[in-house]
Amino acid sequence: MRTKSSNIVRTFFVSTSTWVAPLALLGVSMGSPAHADELVRTPIADATLLEDEFGAVSNGGGGWLFAGKTSGFFSRRALLRFDLSPIPRGSIITRVQLRLRMDRTLDFANRVMSLHRVTASWNEGVGNPTNNEGSGVPTVDGDSTWLHRVFPDELWTTPGGDYVAQPSGTSVFGFIEPRFDNFDSSPTTGTFGNPNGNPGLIADITAWINDPAANFGWILRGYEDEAANARRFVSRTGTTASRPTLTITYTPPVVGCNLADITGVGGPPIQPDGLLTGDDLNAFIAAFAAGDLLADVVRIGGTTPPDGLLTGDDFVAFIAAFTAGCP
Question: CA 236 to CA 34: how far, in whole Å?
Fold first, then answer.
């Protein structure tokens, strides 16, 4: 890391009385006003955790996912993870919908199902059961199980998966098969869905696009207080038209917003929030003076992405972007 960042800060304050820097130094355009985009994705990984005290069975490569309680009173929980990399950091998420196709259940009641943010990494595995798949297959290296994030050595802190107890979303799912049911951040009218919407889905996606390393996906839980209500859903390896589908509506930032939005209101360590405020400016100046890589916003030459160095290019680029502001 370069060590003269504090001198650059002092020189800047002495040489100018306004937050202005020529955009020509960046060699980039600040872009046009933001517009709404939509990303549609199927999972890049999914698996079912099958309750077993030894973690001896798995289902990561099968054509179905399961959630709820079996007739033998064993829980089933489904893991899903999506690639969000096409969404630019700093985008404003306006709607999130997760669509699942249920094609088998022994239950004859509508059930509330919940979606929780997973807090630890996991591996899909290769276990591929035959027939109805609900009993899984013997676990092999690399599978995720009720006990293991990655068999045989990496364990969940809590059997059944590590996740935030407060659901990111809840939704009433029906029992007539086959059918599609949704988790939706927007309020849903009628018997199914959630009349209050699920804003937690937007919070999760926002956090993951600003910190991709924390994207461990969701875990789907069904009704686990009585037997024989488990539901079977088509997985990412099932019939193409029936696979889980995540649809995200978002407004991407213009280049200036994307570059200069480095923190939420209140400053670090809160993630970017899609707004340009004095907190972003204060956080950048403090980080740059201290040699903190929070201020590493461009590579040498003034173009993105960051390069792990703090130079005058980072300072000039940030100030130009911050001055341009958000439309």
Answer: 32
The alpha-helical segments, DSSP class H, found in the chain are 5-15, 199-210, 255-260, 278-290, 312-324
pLDDT tens digits, residue range 279-318? 889 999 999 999 988 888 888 887 777 888 999 988 988 8
* DSSP track, 53-83: TT--EEBSSSSEEEEEE-TTS-EEEEEEE--
Tens digits of residue pLDDT in 34-78: 568 999 999 999 999 999 999 999 999 999 999 999 999 999 999
Contacts of residue 45, defined as CB under 8 A and 6 or more positions apart, other chains included, come to: 79, 80, 81, 122, 123, 124, 217, 236
The domain ranges of the chain are 5-34+253-324, 43-251
CA distances from 242 to 85, 157, 158 (A): 23, 33, 31
Residue 112 exposure: Cα atoms within 13 Å on the Cβ side = 6
**Whether 317 contacts 7, CB under 8 Å:** no
Query: Global pTM?
Result: 0.74
Distance (Å, rounded) from C-alpha 98 to C-alpha 116?
13
Q: Distance (Å, rounded) from C-alpha 215 to C-alpha 100?
A: 20
CB atoms closer than 10 angstroms to residue 162: 18
**Tens-place pLDDT, residues 117-160:** 999 999 999 999 988 999 999 999 999 999 999 999 999 999 99
Give the helix, strand, coil percentages of the chain, each rounded to 5: 20, 25, 55
Q: Using CA atoms, how far apart are residues 81 and 44, in angstroms rounded to an integer?
A: 6
